[in-house]
Each structure stands twice: as structure tokens, then as C-alpha cells.
Amino acid sequence: MHHSAEELFSLYEEKFSVKDFDFEPVGLYEPVKHIMSIPGKRIRPTLLMMACELFGGKVEDATHAAFAMEIFHNFTLVHDDIMDKADIRRGKPTVHKVFGINAGILAGDVMLSYAYKYLCKMPKASLADALEVFNQTSIEIYEGQQLDVDFETRMDVSIDEYLKMIKFKTSVLLAGSMQIGAIIANASKDDQLKIYQFGLDLGLSFQIKDDFLDTFGEEAKVGKRIGGDILNNKKTYLLINTLNAAQGDDKTLLLSLLDEKEEQKKIDGVVSIMRKYGIVESTSTKIEELYLSSLGHLESIKINAEQKSVLRSMAEKVHQRDY
Predict the structure, then answer these.
(1) Coil, strand or helix: which one is 112?
(2) CA distance 231 to 75
């Protein structure tokens, strides 16, 4: 019998908590506890455990690796928030906002070490292959972060460049988590690749949905100010398509809005142009396309449909979310 997403989420929450960081010096571990105590979606650890079960592995063999991936994910958020000068994360003040930039940098550093520490608690027979995936995943995440930074000063970012950036910055961690789950279950290389591709397309869909919600979501549900990406001139799927689509006076207005200092005027102006050029519809179409592609990779795995239903439900939940 396979566990549901909710059961795996509960199992994870029971096994791991901020108490796992009750160490000294307090100045190092309080920032870690701050970010790790903010409720998250726990998508990566849940998908890792699901992938392990999908291929006949035991969940208890995958829990430490699941915690490792969640710690690593939160480490990237701490440093990302510093680089973005972000004040809010999941509705709470960011680590560097509460504890300072130096504490945020050091907290991230120690979290990376703890990610390796917990990964090394997985079954030794799977560790070498898992470490190879983990290291490649982390390298690509850092490359994706640099691309994101590079794009801030460019006005000619293409959709293909953007998709590569979010693939590295976001998708590979979902995909890598699932592959590590498959490795623990001793899945074939072919099945590892298929579950990786499922995670990759689901991650792309997930990130574009995040971009969409940042601009067109509800603040109370999303947990941060709506329009933050617009204020930061972030080259998202929405803005790149708007820059490509806008013509004549609209293009001139859009470019001038990017330099607008009055925040609400900037957000409202850019959103108005986005709506005019059908960006809501075209973005929704792309999210759906990537979601269906991810399901296609899942269906190609030669395991009975009932076993795949838990993952399909999880993917649908990710796809349908409004937060």
C-alpha cells in the first residue's frame, strides 16, 4: 500500500522539526530555526518519498534524504532573499531582515553542510549515485541563480533563456529529489530518467505558476506582496512576453514604467499592459502545457496506473494551487 501525499507530509513533519537544530552557538542556529519553522509546502521531500515508494522502496529509507533536500532548498531561499533584498518569505520576515546579512550568510552555509550530513544517513548502497545527482543539481541551481542576476540588467532576455534559468534555479531540485527517491528504491536508469523528466516539467510549470501568482494572485494566499516581481523588474515569463508583444506607444509606456518610482502606479500600469496583450491567457496555456508534459513522462513509466495515481494527484495539487 502506498501512502498519500498527506500521509507522507505528516510522516515528514513528525520525524523532523526545528528541534533538530537546537544547538549552540545560538547566533548560528536561531536563523536556521527561523526559516525551517515557517510552514512550507514540503513539495520536494514529499515527492522524493513518493518516488521511492513508486519503485518499491521503503519510505523509512528515504526520510533522511527528504530532510536533506528540504534543508538544501531552504538554504537557497535564505541566500536568494539576501540577494533579492526580500523582506518577506511565506508571510514572515526573511532571515536577514530579522538577524542581519552576516547571520543569513552563515546560516545558509551551515544548512548546506547539514543537507550533506542528512543525505549521508541514507542507505549506503545508494549514496554514491545520490551524491552525484545532488552535486549536479546544486551546481545547476547556482548557475540558475547567476543567470537570474544577469537578467536584471538585460532587456533582451528571450523566453528560451528564461526557461533555462528557471529549469536550473527551480526545476532541477524537484527533478533531482525525485531521482534520488528512485535511486534509493534501486530503480533502473531508464525509470530514473523518466521520473526526473516528470519532475523537471512539473517544476517548470510550478515556477511559471509562481510568477503568475506573484502578479495575479491574492496577497493573503500567496503570503507576500503582489507585484513584487514587477517592482524588481524581474524578467519573468510574463514580463518577457509583454516586452515582446507590446507595440508602439504601449512599448514606450512599458519601458517608462520600468523606471517608475511610485510603486502602485508601476504595478497597475504594467498589469494593465499585460492584460491588454493577453499575457494572462498565454501564461496559463504554457503552465497547462508543461503540466501535461510532466504527466506524459509519468505515464511512460511501466508501473500500474494505481501506483502512479498518488504522484498524479500530487502533480494536480501543485498545478491547481492558488498560493
Answers:
(1) helix
(2) 24
**CA-to-CA distance for 56 and 198, rounded, in angstroms?**
18
Place of cell 528571450: 158
Query: For the chain, how far is it from start to end, CA to CA, in angstroms?
Result: 30
State phi, psi for 232 to the nearest 5 degrees.
Answer: -90, 5
Q: Of the candidates 255, 226, 223, which has an alpha carbon nearest to the alpha carbon of residue 239?
A: 255
CATH H superfamily, domain 5-320: Farnesyl Diphosphate Synthase (1.10.600.10)
Domain boundaries, the chain: 5-320
Question: How much is the pTM?
Answer: 0.90
Residues 6+ apart with CB under 8 A from 20: 67
Phi-psi region of 283 (alpha: psi -120 to 50; beta: other; left: phi over 0): alpha
3-state SS, residue 2 = coil
C-alpha cell read off for 145: 541563480
- Higher-confidence residue of 263 and 306: namely 263
Dihedrals phi, psi of 173, to nearest 5 degrees: -75, -40
pLDDT, tens digit, 9 for 90 and up, residues 166-193: 999 999 999 999 999 999 999 999 999 9
Quick one: pLDDT at residue 247?
96
Cα→Cα distances 41→6, 38, 111, 250, 268, Å: 11, 10, 19, 38, 29
CA torsion 317→318→322→323, rounded to 10°? 120
Burial (CB < 10 A; 0-12, 13-18, 19+), residue 94, is: buried
Strand partners, 300: none
| pLDDT tens figures, 256-287 | 999 999 999 999 999 999 999 999 999 999 99
Quick one: cell of 294?
510532466
